[in-house]
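Morning. Coffee machine broken again, so started the prediction first thing and wrote up yesterday's gels while waiting. Chain of 309 residues, entered below exactly as on the submission form.
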Amino acid sequence: MLCRICKSKGERKKAVIFIRHHRLALCKEHFVEWFERQTEKTIKKFKMFSKREKVLVAVSGGKDSLSLWFALHRLGYETYGFHVSLGIKGWDYSERSLEMCRKLSERIGRPLIVFDLKEEFGYTIEEIAKGTGRRDVCSVCGTFKRYLMNKVAREHGFKVVATGHNLDDESALLLSNTIRWEIGYLGRQAPVLPEEGGFARKVKPFCFLTEKETVSYAIVNNIEFLKSGCPNAKEATSATFKRALALIEHEMPGTKLRFYKEFLKKARPLFEREVKRELQLNECQVCGMPTTAPVCAVCKALERLRERC
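Came back before lunch.
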């Protein structure tokens, strides 16, 4: 298959990717241009951040977050990486994840802020989940990561935190929340969550790009990333929703993009109004971070662990 853009110029250059829902075949050069243009377009469309702002990029060591850091750096934004070392021993997961983040940090010459759970709190994420009686490590991990992103952003003077969530992530989350009619989550799912009540602005510049596109971007740019997923990921239900959407997407290309875009345009405003009526934020009595309860979920979990020891 030939690159469509090269072909239009009378050149015969092989495509490295075919994007079905756009019917677009692109060579390496034109794919990188297209990918970065789409990222920039999303940033500007939702007014995520400007070149004058420092951007804290949450990096896990995987393809999406490292591709995001690399792309934002190439686009000229002032970026800083942020990695949470979870202390997961299986497959040497945490060590290898941190190594991937450090390699990209050195390659692009940008600082990497590392928060080690074991060093700072005294427990790994698996010890926290087990000690609080939670079988779902992924849920606990998500709670701690969101807390730490906001905490580190506040402590280091960042107003915006960027994550590598892609279209597959967003559409699977939307399907999951719609099936359960999680009004609160549906009202808060968006490419941008504004800074308010002590929370940093959260942005998702890859929300319209598929997982296939982000992994292809990482590969053609020789970005080293952790190819094996987290050992605890088997507990996550998101994979089931991704498989369901992949089946529909295969039969009807563009379904995921339409599903997510139409939600943002037509349904989310309704859910958002409902959430705003109910949401009341205050400071955690222990750490001072914003929460809807007297004591935030992280402080509650750590307190429970200390009581058991």
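Residues 30-277 form a domain with the Rossmann fold fold (CATH 3.40.50.620). Going to sketch it on the whiteboard this afternoon.
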